[in-house]
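Aim 2 progress. For C2H2-type domain-containing protein, the working sequence is reproduced below.
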Amino acid sequence: ILGPDPPRKRRSASRSEFTDSNPILPLSNEIIPCPTCGEIFHNPNLLELHQSTKHAVSELCDGDSGKNVVWIIFKTGWVEYDRSPNIHRILKIHNSPKILARFEEYRETVKAKAARAGDERCAADGNELLRFHCTTLVCNLGQNGNSSICNNHYCSACGIIRF
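Predicted structure tokens for this construct:
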């Protein structure tokens, strides 16, 4: 005699089957808004990726003290002051907390080594130096408020920031 199939036990998905990398099924109800544009994320790593690509830089405007300091240091570094290159824009790179933490950790290592060796200057600032880099920019990064890095293989500026 055939009858209806016995009820099957439904297998419930374990929590481990869903990961943070699945944006459709977040593990928590946590929402993290981007402080710059307000876009919502359910994962801090996705917010960090968003910020590092969509809000990578800002242009330092006229009258900004940081722009004035960078401009003065750049111009005075040239032997022939009037023959120095024209500055079109000064962009400030917004590094992620992870990048800044790695930098600070490395600087502390350099400072500790310098202190043991008796190098006062390096022990004070970890041999931090301000250097300038002229490079190719093929996108509109920094223009009209654009802070997103591009994916153009020939845009060296965005490639440096992405690295």
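The beta strands are 32-33, 40-41, 57-59, 91-93. This observation will guide construct design in the next reporting period.
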